[in-house]
Amino acid sequence: MFMRAMENILIVGAGLTGAVTAALIKKHLPGSCQLTVRSTVWEKTDAIGGRMTTIQNPLDPRCTVDLGAQYISTEPKNFNANNSIYEELLNNGLLKPLNGQIEGDRIWPEGTQHFVSPHGIYSVIEYYLKKAEARLEMKHHLKEIHQENSHYVVKTSDGTIKAFDGVILTMPVPDILQLEGIIPKILDQRPDVRERLKAVQYSSRFAMGLYYKPGTIIDVPWVAKYFHSDPVIVFIAADSKKREQEDKDIGPSLLVHASVQFTLKHIHEDVDQVCTEHILPRVHELLPQLPKSTFITNHLWQVSQVYKGYEGKPGMLILQDKPLLMCGGDTFTDSQFNRCLESAELLSRMVVKNIV
């Protein structure tokens, strides 16, 4: 007989860790619990994916660009450890081998495989959220968590109040440290945890998505290139070419990432102005043959990849076990696809352990 200690679980953050955690909770639950346990995913923005996001050209939604994560690299040991996940994503057309040249990439161990998502990297997140059958609620910016007996009462910045039996936080640490309610009280009692959280650091970078009219040729020999010594730009990808989604009826797209050093120098300036006055001209200097785009998306990844993670890289952090309150994601591992999968596995197993 199963004793259900939790039935309504809140996962904060609709990025990779949050989406996979929701799907794995459903997968690992015994059949007798699957109809009574419900996961809800809150996303503070109007788009899923976190850094695994895909942006449409508003002039032609068929033309898209991956604005954050570009491709997935997995060494043999990680591919074998997560073989069932990779096979599932490959068989469902959500991943495919990256076949083009990546110029200036690091030297990977022998046997490393690189994958792209043909329909945009966000489609991986979308797949797991659908598989989880979770309730997805957008523009829900968590502000407060309070404990009332055996559950948590949570409140958003716009005043929405709901109760949950367990909470999983997968957002960046700065957002966690800004939460009001029980979080500061727990951290007051665990100053070592507070200090480790405060020591976490992230990189920041400007990103640009450039869209072109149908028939445009982006004449480069690579699908992506790293510019290690450039003072402004660190990475450019011929995005539609990289994903092998070139179509004469759909314009191509280009992705540009600025260097961390350049971003930090201009981080407090207007995003559009920085992109227009500094980054775009440099793109055309590096690629003088590049035609003029029809639309541009400018973005600042204020919190990009983890630069310095949580000490010890435990995969997850239990703030309170009764009722269950946890943190997870690449903050507690590494900014890699496989590490997020491992964090999601740990989080989901802990939830199931508290349910059955």
Automatic annotation (TrEMBL):
InterPro entries: Amino_oxidase (IPR002937), FAD/NAD-bd_sf (IPR036188), RNLS (IPR040174). It comes from the Eukaryota. Pfam families: Amino_oxidase, NAD_binding_8. Gene3D superfamilies: 3.90.660.10, FAD/NAD(P)-binding domain. One of its GO terms (molecular function) is oxidoreductase activity, acting on NAD(P)H. One of its GO terms (cellular component) is extracellular region. Residues 112-309 form the Amine oxidase domain. This is Amine oxidase domain-containing protein. It comes from Paralvinella palmiformis. The lineage of its organism: Eukaryota, Metazoa, Spiralia, Lophotrochozoa, Annelida.
